[in-house]
Structures are given as structure tokens and as C-alpha cells.
Design a protein that fits this description.
The protein is mainly α. It has 5 helices and no strands.
Length: 115
């Protein structure tokens, strides 16, 4: 089983035109690398405010794709920023990068179904 709950994904997007679903996926895919770089920079600079803001932002986008594990990891990064606590951030961010990479892979597969 992947990171996306495909049944819920399909329910979420059932009334959308295929072109819109593809566009939503493409926006995320096109912004993904930059978002990861921004989060990396926030962590490296111990910039709590930017970690909170950028984690919150990516969490919201991920929620659209019904990927609860990835969303939860983004939420935990956001909480670290909010609480100004970087204890364990490297391990969490490493796990987030792995699961979010799986999300990217699965979105590319789903995109094929809509094109």
C-alpha cells in the first residue's frame, strides 16, 4: 500500500474535470523540489518561523492528496517550528523526504490515469 489513500483521493476529486486534477498534481510536482529546499534551509538556519510557515503550507497541499502519513510528518515539522524545538528534526525531516518522495511517485502514477 502506498502513502495515498486512493479510494479517498478518488472521492475527493470525483467531481473535478481530469484537466483540473492534472493541473493540481502538476503544480505540486513542479513546486516540490523548491519546497524541500526551503524546508532544508529553514532547518539548517534554525529558522523556526520559516519552518512553521513552510511546513504548514506543504501540509495543506499534501492534505488534498489524502496522504495521511506524509501530512502528519509535515504537521510535526510545523509543530517543531511553533514550539521552537528542533530536537529530532533531522530524523523527522529525513523520514518526511522519503515519504514525500513516495507521494511524488504515486502522484505521477495517478496523473497517468487522468491523462
Amino acid at each position: 500500500m502506498g502513502v495515498i489513500n486512493k479510494e479517498q483521493f478518488n472521492e475527493t476529486f470525483q467531481y473535478f474535470d481530469s484537466e483540473i486534477v492534472v493541473e493540481i498534481i502538476d503544480i505540486f510536482l513542479n513546486e516540490y523540489s523548491e519546497r524541500i529546499e526551503t524546508l532544508t534551509a529553514s532547518i539548517n538556519a534554525v529558522d523556526y518561523d520559516n519552518l512553521k510557515f513552510n511546513s504548514h503550507s506543504i501540509k495543506g497541499v499534501i492534505a488534498n492528496f489524502v496522504a495521511p502519513e506524509v501530512e502528519q510528518q509535515a504537521k510535526e515539522l510545523e509543530i517543531m517550528g511553533s514550539e521552537k524545538n528542533m530536537d529530532g528534526v533531522d530524523e523527522l525531516f529525513a523520514a518526511f523526504k522519503i515519504s514525500s518522495a513516495s507521494l511524488v511517485y504515486e502522484l505521477r502514477e495517478i496523473k497517468e490515469d487522468y491523462t
